[in-house]
Amino acid sequence: MNVDITFLPSGRSASVRAGTTVLDAARKAGVPIRTRCDGKAACLMCKVTTASGQGLSPLSDNERRKLAGLEGQGTRLACQTKVTGKAVVEVPEDPLRAAVRRQLMRQAEEDELW
Ligand code: FES
């Protein structure tokens, strides 16, 4: 059975087999999610958030331990979370890209002063 998952803020989506990890679904949708351990729950770089948790597998003990309290804010590890139904997850902006964007905004504000 295939299920749909949508990634925010891009709005890209993918139809994947139920049980596919969010990380693999993101790859199929062409949505970049940072990872160093390639899905072994070691790097903790693949965090995504979900408002409702609907359409996603329940937290495993390993994921809960790795998240150390962040799960209460809707944070999940994309490599450990499986898509079980229609789901929507938000992928945070890459920290390097966010830093560059903030710097460019600051520079534009300074340019306006001149
Ligand atoms: S990919 Fe490394 S913890 Fe998920």
UniProtKB/TrEMBL annotation:
Superkingdom, taxonomy of origin: Bacteria
Stored InterPro entries: 2Fe-2S_ferredoxin-like_sf, 2Fe-2S_ferredoxin-type, Beta-grasp_dom_sf
Domain 2Fe-2S ferredoxin-type: 3-95
Family annotation (CDD domains): fer2
Protein name as it appears in the record: 2Fe-2S iron-sulfur cluster binding domain-containing protein
Species for this entry: Paenibacillus oenotherae
